[in-house]
Amino acid sequence: MQELKTMDIISKESQLSLENVKRLIQRNFSENPLAWWDRNKIEATLKIKEECKYEYVRYKPIQMNMEDKRDMQMIIKEHINLGLIEPGISAYSSPGFLIKMESESKKFTAFSTPQGQYIWNVLPIGLANAPQIFQRKMDNLFKDYFEFMFVYIDDILIASKNMKEHIKHLEIFSDACYKEGLVLSEKKTTIAVNKIELLGILINETGIELQEHIVEKIRNFPDILKDKKHLQSFLGVVNFAGIFIKDLVKYRKDFRPLLKETESAKWKWEEIHTQRVREPKLAKPQGEDELIVYTDANDYRWAAVLMKKTATGEEPCRYTGGLFTEQQARMWHINEKELFAVWKAFKK
């Protein structure tokens, strides 16, 4: 069993407590997602609309070379051994794993390979509503601990003020996982660290900032947009980084007409390339901090920023903003737009 990653420098007392917590957490590790399914016996049921019951979706197995076929055979064998899939025959064939499938729903999860057709015994990732089903399970499991636990699909972040509190939180988390039969990944588990990378964001004691690979994607994006799809790809990265970029909505106004164009478009975005470099990382508001919300609006857009008051001034915690619809921009008085900005800021 590999050593859990932790902080390098902690007190001897905390080290002993951490060793006990590690043993508690390690009992939840397994390579088999269904290892302790019997503890809660949650199943996923797929309900097909009446008008779609006889609309079968079939896909032929994808073309593979000999090396790919060997890899596929190995994966199929591994999944069968773990009980995740089984050979099956189904008119439905379409290419996640911690929720067991209800028996009558398995046929809708069929997929084809050169080695034959198989059906899933567990909820496959490819289903459109699989993330919602899994998120609902996780929310129900940890609903009493949202004060210090943040859950997004299968990523769990436990935030504590100090080591003593962190150890207590880890004990609560481990007991909840054990009781509900939630399987944890040993390779991906890290405890008792003062900084962590999660979902493209770096979180540490002083604040929150984008991971460098996200910054590089924005910084290194080509100066010439080849087509609409190319622009959409860039916008996806920029929108992900939206809370870090001041006045992002200003750039969205420039992008909107380009999304309607069919020809190649060239746009100079030196501003947005350098904006992220100039912006400080986001501060983390604490319970006793004095917070200030600034809002603004003009004819076509609104913007807001959450600021944290410090001894030396103010630090940004988050940016947000949006564009008014054509009707709102045309019909609303500026006072209405300003009030709308305030309402949206507090709603965010």
TrEMBL record:
The family database entries (InterPro entries) matched by this protein are listed as: DNA/RNA_pol_sf (IPR043502), Rev_trsase/Diguanyl_cyclase (IPR043128), RT_dom (IPR000477), RT_RNaseH_2 (IPR041577), Viral_Replic_Matur_Polypro (IPR051320)
Domain spans labelled Reverse transcriptase: 1-203
Cited PROSITE patterns: RT_POL
Checking Gene3D superfamilies in the record gives: 3.30.70.270, HIV Type 1 Reverse Transcriptase, subunit A, domain 1 (3.10.10.10)
PANTHER family, per database record:
POL PROTEIN (PTHR33064), RIBONUCLEASE H (PTHR33064:SF37)
Q: What is this protein called?
A: Enzymatic polyprotein
Please report the organism this UniProt entry assigns to the protein. Sesamum angolense
